[in-house]
């Protein structure tokens, strides 16, 4: 039970939504609570069972009432659990805090809240654990943390308990004093903040809070205060807001109590772990910032220790103090020292990369005593960061990419600030550095190197796009790079896009695209591989988007690749390549200089429409050609416009943009599978094969008939096929989506090897309300046996989606393979009878594959005539009016015969059989049984 | 100062990524919701988070050459605070997601931004940022601590300990301390210690004879080009590691570092938070400005009250006038073979007594080595199994001349191509030196046994040691183009 529940808990925590899909939160919660209540259950397991309540209390207790019940339940579990299970009890306190705070909606607070608060306060004061079992984890510390969290959620909740908390901290000598201090500092900060929000609050109120000699007024306050339900939102940092918005509490110079509380906390701060120490110092910074009567120099004694620290969070606190107090705590020497320290730290060999990057960010946002720029949003370079100082942070190729880019950015800002444009060595260094990155990319750097290089290139352009010397050279180098590695096309296009977007005034991107277009159009086509060509077309497509770029080079390139003689590339009929070509053409159609390239473009389109190896591409080329030659420029622009809107989101498929560009087409290019059979093939009512009107007998033939007859088979195709007709209809399954189907392509697959492979068949359309189309299936038997065929179909629905479906199998029956004697058309009955006689004689000898047999059955004479009429008329060789003996010859392609002599004898009707393929006998037997039985 | 959620992810270069542990802090999430109002973006479920994080870290879809979302050239600071763009159920940006990686393990957390909604505050104004970084680094050390094999059961067992460790160090999303890395993951019982307050970072009381162990370890890095146009570079940094077993709640120990006369001052000193006070002159020297010769050069006094576990008391950098080993490396392409010539000189000020000294000469973007006709004046030469690396073991001592040479020809006629490296094409090649010299420091910095003061009743045992070792010690072929790596260009 418990182990199952543990698995459920981990499944829940992995993905609550998926878990609750299968069960409800009430069931799961009930299960958890039941197990938690169970005294026999293992307490280590119970700790785990609490985690869903700690992590997702609002999901498990979606309403106040459930939250209330759960909290009461957990409180009772807490009181009943043996004190020695400290870890469980601690976790239980955490869970209770989460349930009580998160399950209620914003407005109110649960009724169990005050009780729990009392419990926590009581636990926080209970020092008995010191003398008891000396557990590793003190319940007291957890209680303090729960109180601190509740105070953070409901600021002011504990402001009336400040004196108590101060006392507890003071008495505590074990390392738990840290927990009290953290709580006290937060409560103090919230209390001071609340006073700043009250009118007429001053030194007296502050003293009352700290000193505890609460006035009646305060008592009243306590009852109406936050604990009873009035809510206050969590506070954001008070020193983080824009300058000058720190709320202040005017106390006059007299605030000894506050000062002594602060001093005593500061004195002990050294005893705290760096994380808690930083948090404490930050809270105290906030308090001092709000109370002008306390001079910031109260922190002075701690500063030196903090400035020398190796702990990132402690130095950070120092910076935040600097930001809050500027020159009232830091002289300009201190400032310079702190700044230098930051530079040192951001490249210190012993610090981790994330720490160094963090310090780099601190440099860019250094809170200067006298900031020159006032824009506080963007990164502004501090005046203290001279090029000389910054040279310690020059990027090197051995840097990881984050560090490299961060340094590159910083140094760019520095050189920009220093006005290095023409012959600054710093700028030269940066460009050299960019070039060495390019070399690495060129000689086959990893993907990360490539991305880093392009980011660095973007940074360089972003800052120095006006320094033509370097930017032009960069364009050239990028073209070189592209020729060597065309696969960087998307990176280059991305770089062009971004520079254009971020630097609307710069023409660099235009220049790059122009240069790329030039190098592409100058490349000999014979040296271009298919992948190269695809990338080239991508780049050209992008270049064609620019109205200012002349497109003649592109046209030259396109005309170069399309004639099939020049290369095998376009004659291969590669659909993607074709789309690439059409993509360029499409952009050219809306290019402002279309007039001047009308004829070459028309030629290209016409050529593609006429000669390209893929039908789809030809069709589209024809469409573009028609659009180009028939529409006015304005109309053409409107028809093809939606891309110009720049929305990559535009996924609408219009007739004019059926192809390319990737993602939007996924669902269209995907073939969907139907769940059930939508359509089927049913046998068409066989129009009876008419008994041919035979040419009346001509004279006796001189030549031996059998030989003449057999000679016909020397041509392999002779009488080798059987034609079957089917109707293509919908199945009974009704689905409006499939009422109208188009371009149905039927695919047949064999289940045995009696027949040759079958060709696919196309049916233009199938509408439910129209008569079903007839499908003619031509079978070419290898052996004339019955068989069945698997059928599947691919079709398009009205919404443009393509589907694949499986049809019910179709059976090829034995009688469907029968053909009449394939005698030369000029022969009359006599010739046929002669063949019959000749064959009969041969077969009766039963040599080789030949066999003869007899089938008998009871039939009235009339019934027999009807049977012959119905089943054998096309195959009759004898005159149908000769009722005493019917002779029928069944020809089964490719070269089998079944000869029948049917006659009524005294006792029964005899079917005398002869065949040159004895393996057909069982099938014939089945067939005769079937037709005679009915 | 609080975290909304925490994740521990393991992966192999982006493949087979899985979340090994995650924790959401519901109350902090509630605060985030109330603080950010309408701009609130909820923490997504694990699967979704994992995908977004891997994409942002550039680790996803390693087979695709260009993925717009991952490879966009637009620069924005990505590390250490990432932006994750959530699309479902609601569009939004999760920021700042802190992530640190080591080997196959990535740790991430989402700190609470306790600013009023609206404009995004700079990263450096959020204390939760550095707290998150510290906390993640501490967790990383805990998870990958020595003794736990990186991929094996060590990690699994430490992950299993994590829920109880978090209850201790970060029960409700506010990190209070870092997990202890020792074998004993649980601190000793809480005890009252009389009048004196016990530091929160001192996890227990030591009883027994006082032992203080101080070791100074210096690391030297170098880039040598053997080229007039390019300045050779080297730097030295040192750490002073301590292990103090001393009785008392808040014992006092003082360690003093001293330099030889005329030694260049220790720079960029960083100290452990247990150091009680510092003289401002200790911190004045810095590597980023020019030393005017008048700077304070010791002795450096560090009074502190030690934690129980071993710790780094302080670290420093130093500018020494010469690199310990000066090298020259020359390659010449002669038809199909490569002519190699190497000279290594040990500076006279360095103690000629190594624990080891190896020179590695890798060759990239070539076939494997076939015939190696190379002579060395001292030491022993080996060809690696993969046949793309020469290992020159110089042993414990340089000869009396303090100079060793290597001369000869290598024919790259092996049957298979060797490894490739985009940095080392053509004649761009390097020697990497690995050495360790016991009982010496380049800066001359030392801790005298007698200068260690312990204020306790019994006489303490004091052990001090020094050593120097190399890291990133490169000597580039002077006939090829070495990659630019100057970190100290003079502007």
Topology, element by element:
The complex is a heterodimer of chains A (934) and B (491).
Chain A: H1 2-14, H2 16-22, H3 25-37, H4 43-49, H5 51-55, H6 57-60, H7 64-80, H8 86-102, H9 112-125, H10 139-153, H11 162-171, H12 177-197, H13 203-211, H14 216-224, H15 256-268, H16 274-290, H17 300-307, H18 312-325, H19 332-345, H20 353-364, H21 387-390, H22 401-417, H23 425-442, H24 447-464, H25 468-484, H26 489-502, H27 508-522, H28 530-544, H29 552-561, H30 575-589, H31 598-611, H32 615-630, H33 633-639, H34 666-669, E1 671-673, E2 679-683, H35 705-711, E3 722-730, E4 740-750, E5 761-767, E6 774-779, E7 787-797, E8 802-812, H36 829-844, E9 851-857, H37 861-872, E10 885-892, E11 896-904, E12 909-915, H38 921-933
Parallel strand pairs in A: 1-8
Antiparallel strand pairs in A: 2-3, 3-6, 4-5, 4-7, 7-8, 9-12, 10-11, 11-12
Helix pairs in contact in A: 1-2, 4-8, 7-8, 8-9, 8-10, 9-10, 10-12, 11-12, 12-13, 12-16, 16-18, 19-20, 20-22, 22-24, 23-24, 23-25, 24-26, 25-27, 26-27, 26-28, 27-28, 27-29, 28-30, 29-31, 30-32, 31-32
Chain B: E1 3-12, E2 15-24, H1 26-36, H2 46-56, H3 68-71, E3 81-86, E4 92-102, E5 105-111, H4 127-143, H5 153-169, E6 211-224, E7 233-245, E8 253-258, E9 267-271, E10 300-304, E11 311-318, E12 325-334, E13 337-346, E14 356-362, E15 371-376, E16 380-383, E17 389-393, E18 403-411, E19 430-438, E20 446-447, E21 453-454, E22 461-476
Describe what you observe in this structure.
The complex is a heterodimer of chains A (934) and B (491). Chain A has 934 residues and is an alpha+beta fold. Chain A contains 38 helices and twelve strands. In chain A, strands 1-8-7-4-5 form a five-stranded mixed beta sheet. The longest helix of chain A has 21 residues, at 177-197. Chain B is mostly beta strands. In chain B, the strands form four sheets. A nine-stranded mixed beta sheet of chain B has the order 9-11-7-6-22-19-14-17-16, with no helix packed on it. A five-stranded antiparallel beta sheet of chain B has the order 2-1-5-4-3. The model of chain B is unreliable at 486-491 (pLDDT under 50). Classes of the chains: A alpha+beta (934), B mainly beta (491). Chains A and B meet through helix 5, helix 8, helix 10, helix 12 and helix 16 of A and strand 2, helix 1, helix 3, helix 4 and helix 5 of B.
């Amino acid at each position: 039970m418990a182990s199952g529940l543990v698995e459920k808990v981990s499944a829940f925590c992995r993905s609550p939504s998926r878990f609750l899909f299968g069960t409800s939160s009430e069931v799961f919660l009930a299960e958890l609570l039941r197990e938690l209540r169970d005294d026999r259950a293992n307490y280590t397991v119970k700790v785990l069972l609490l985690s869903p309540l700690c992590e997702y209390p609002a999901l498990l207790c979606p309403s106040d009432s459930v939250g209330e019940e759960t909290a009461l339940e957990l409180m009772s579990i807490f009181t009943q659990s043996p004190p020695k299970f400290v870890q469980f009890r601690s976790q239980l306190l955490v869970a209770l805090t989460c349930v009580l705070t998160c399950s209620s909606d914003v407005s109110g607070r649960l009724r169990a809240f005050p009780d729990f608060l009392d419990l926590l306060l009581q636990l926080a004061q209970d020092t008995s654990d010191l003398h008891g079992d000396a557990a590793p984890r003190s319940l007291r510390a957890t209680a303090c943390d729960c109180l601190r969290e509740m105070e953070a959620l409901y600021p002011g909740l504990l402001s009336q308990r400040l004196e108590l908390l101060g006392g507890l901290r003071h008495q505590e000598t074990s390392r738990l004093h840290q927990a009290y201090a953290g709580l006290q500092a937060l409560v103090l900060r919230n209390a001071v903040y609340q006073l700043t929000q009250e009118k007429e609050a001053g030194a007296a109120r502050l003293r009352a809070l700290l000193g505890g000699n609460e006035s009646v007024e305060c008592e009243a306050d306590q009852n109406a205060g936050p604990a009873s339900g009035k809510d206050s939102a969590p506070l954001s940092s008070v020193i983080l807001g824009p300058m000058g918005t720190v709320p202040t509490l005017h106390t006059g110079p007299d605030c000894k109590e506050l000062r002594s509380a602060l001093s005593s906390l500061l004195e002990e701060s050294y005893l705290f772990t760096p994380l808690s120490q930083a948090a404490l110092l930050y809270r105290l910074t906030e308090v001092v910032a709000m109370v002008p009567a306390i001079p910031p120099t109260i922190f002075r004694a701690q500063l030196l220790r903090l400035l020398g620290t190796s702990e990132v969070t402690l130095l950070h606190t120092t910076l935040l103090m600097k930001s809050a107090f500027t020159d009232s705590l830091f002289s300009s020497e201190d400032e310079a020292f702190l700044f230098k320290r930051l530079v040192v730290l951001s490249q210190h060999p012993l610090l981790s990369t994330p720490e160094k990057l963090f310090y780099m960010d601190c440099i860019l946002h250094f809170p200067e005593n006298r900031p020159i720029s006032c824009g506080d949003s963007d990164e502004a370079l501090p005046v203290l960061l001279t090029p000389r100082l910054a040279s310690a942070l020059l990027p090197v190729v051995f840097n990881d990419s984050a560090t490299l880019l961060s340094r590159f950015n910083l140094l760019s800002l520095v050189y920009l600030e220093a006005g290095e444009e023409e012959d600054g060595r710093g700028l030269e260094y940066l460009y050299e550095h960019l070039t060495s990155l390019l070399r690495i990319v060129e000689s086959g750097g990893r993907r990360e190197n490539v991305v880093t290089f392009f980011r660095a290139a973007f940074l360089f352009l972003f800052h120095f796009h006006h320094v033509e010397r370097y930017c032009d050279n960069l364009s050239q180098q990028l073209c070189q790079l592209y020729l060597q590695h065309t696969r960087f096309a998307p990176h280059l296009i991305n770089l062009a896009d971004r520079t254009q977007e971020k630097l609307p005034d710069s023409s660099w991107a235009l220049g790059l695209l122009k240069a790329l277009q030039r190098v592409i159009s100058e490349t000999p086509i014979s040296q271009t591989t298919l992948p190269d060509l695809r990338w080239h077309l991508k780049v050209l497509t992008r270049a064609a988007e620019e109205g200012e770029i002349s497109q003649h080079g592109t046209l030259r390139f396109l005309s170069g690749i399309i004639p099939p003689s020049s290369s095998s590339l376009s004659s291969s009929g590669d659909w993607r390549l074709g789309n690439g070509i059409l993509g360029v053409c499409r952009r050219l159609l809306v290019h402002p200089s279309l007039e001047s390239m009308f004829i070459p473009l028309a030629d290209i389109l016409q050529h593609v429409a006429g000669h390209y190896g893929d039908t789809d591409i030809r069709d589209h080329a024809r469409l573009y050609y028609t659009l180009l030659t028939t529409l006015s420029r304005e109309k053409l622009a409107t028809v093809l416009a939606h891309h110009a809107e720049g929305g990559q989101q535009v996924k609408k498929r219009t007739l004019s943009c059926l192809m390319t560009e990737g993602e939007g087409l996924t669902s269209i290019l995907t073939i969907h599978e139907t769940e059930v059979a939508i359509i089927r093939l049913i046998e068409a009512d066989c129009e009876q094969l008419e008994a041919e009107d035979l040419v009346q007998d001509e004279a006796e033939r001189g030549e031996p008939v059998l030989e003449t007859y057999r000679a016909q088979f020397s041509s392999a195709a002779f009488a080798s096929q059987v034609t079957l007709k089917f109707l293509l209809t919908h199945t009974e399954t009704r689905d409006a989506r499939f009422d109208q189907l188009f371009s149905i392509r039927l695919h047949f697959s064999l289940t045995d090897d009696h027949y040759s492979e079958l060709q696919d068949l196309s049916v233009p359309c199938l509408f439910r309300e129209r008569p079903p189309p007839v499908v003619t299936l031509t079978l070419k038997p290898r052996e004339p046996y019955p068989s069945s065929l698997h059928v599947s179909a691919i079709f398009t629905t009205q919404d443009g989606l393509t589907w694949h479906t499986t049809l019910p199998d179709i059976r090829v029956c034995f009688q469907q393979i029968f053909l009449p004697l394939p005698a030369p058309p000029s022969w009359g009955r006599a010739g046929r009878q002669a063949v019959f006689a000749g064959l009969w004689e041969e077969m009766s000898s039963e040599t080789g594959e030949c066999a003869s047999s007899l089938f008998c059955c009871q039939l009235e004479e009339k019934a027999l005539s009807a049977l012959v009429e119905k089943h054998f008329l096309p195959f009759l060789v004898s005159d149908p009016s000769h009722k005493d003996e019917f002779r029928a010859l069944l020809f089964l392609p490719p070269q089998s015969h079944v000869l029948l002599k049917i006659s009524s004898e005294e006792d029964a009707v005899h079917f005398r059989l002869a065949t040159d393929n004895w393996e057909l006998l069982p099938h014939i037997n089945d067939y005769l049984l079937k037709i005679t039985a009915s | 100062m609080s975290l909304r959620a925490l994740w521990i992810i393991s992966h192999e270069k982006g493949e087979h990524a899985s979340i090994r542990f995650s924790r959401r802090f519901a109350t902090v999430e509630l605060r985030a919701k109330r603080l950010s109002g309408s701009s609130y973006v909820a923490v997504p479920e694990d699967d979704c988070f994992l995908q977004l994080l891997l994409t942002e870290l550039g680790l996803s879809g390693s087979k695709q050459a260009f993925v717009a979302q991952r490879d966009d050239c637009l620069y924005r600071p990505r590390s250490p605070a990432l932006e994750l763009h959530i699309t479902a159920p609601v569009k939004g940006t999760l920021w700042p997601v802190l992530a640190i990686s080591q080997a196959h393990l990535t740790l991430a957390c989402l700190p609470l931004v306790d600013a009023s909604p609206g404009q995004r505050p700079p990263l450096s104004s959020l204390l939760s940022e550095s707290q998150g970084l510290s906390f993640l680094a501490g967790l990383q050390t805990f998870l990958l601590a020595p003794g736990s094999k990186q991929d094996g059961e060590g990690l699994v067992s430490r992950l299993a300990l994590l829920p109880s460790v978090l209850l201790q160090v970060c029960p409700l999303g506010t990190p209070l301390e870092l997990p202890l890395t020792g074998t004993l993951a649980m601190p000793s019982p809480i005890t009252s210690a009389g009048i004196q307050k016990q530091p929160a970072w001192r996890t227990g009381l030591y009883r027994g004879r006082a032992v203080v162990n101080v070791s100074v370890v210096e690391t030297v890095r170098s880039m040598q080009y053997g080229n007039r146009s390019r300045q050779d570079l080297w730097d030295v940094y040192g750490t002073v590691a301590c292990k103090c077993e001393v009785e008392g709640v808040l014992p006092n120990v003082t360690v003093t570092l001293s330099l030889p006369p005329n030694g260049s001052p220790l720079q960029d000193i960083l100290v452990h938070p247990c150091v009680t006070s510092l003289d401002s002159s200790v911190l004045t020297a810095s590597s980023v400005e020019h030393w005017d010769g008048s700077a304070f050069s010791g002795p450096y006094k560090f009074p502190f009250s030690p934690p129980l576990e071993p710790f780094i008391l302080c670290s420093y950098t130093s500018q020494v006038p010469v690199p310990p080993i000066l090298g020259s490396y020359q390659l010449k392409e002669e038809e199909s073979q490569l002519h190699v010539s190497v000279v290594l000189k040990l500076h006279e000020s360095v103690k000629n007594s190594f624990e080891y000294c190896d020179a590695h000469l890798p060759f990239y973007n070539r076939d494997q080595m076939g015939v190696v006709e190379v002579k060395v004046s001292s030491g022993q030469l080996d060809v690696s199994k993969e046949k793309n690396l020469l290992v020159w073991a110089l042993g414990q001592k340089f000869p009396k001349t303090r100079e060793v040479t290597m001369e000869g020809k290598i024919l790259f006629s092996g049957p298979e191509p060797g490894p490739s490296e985009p940095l080392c094409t053509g004649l761009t090649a390097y020697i990497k030196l690995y050495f360790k010299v016991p009982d010496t420091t380049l800066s001359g910095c030392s801790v005298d046994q007698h200068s260690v003061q312990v204020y306790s009743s019994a006489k303490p045992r004091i052990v001090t040691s020094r050593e120097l070792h190399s890291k990133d010690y490169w000597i580039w072929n002077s006939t090829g183009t070495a990659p630019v790596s100057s970190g100290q260009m003079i502007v």
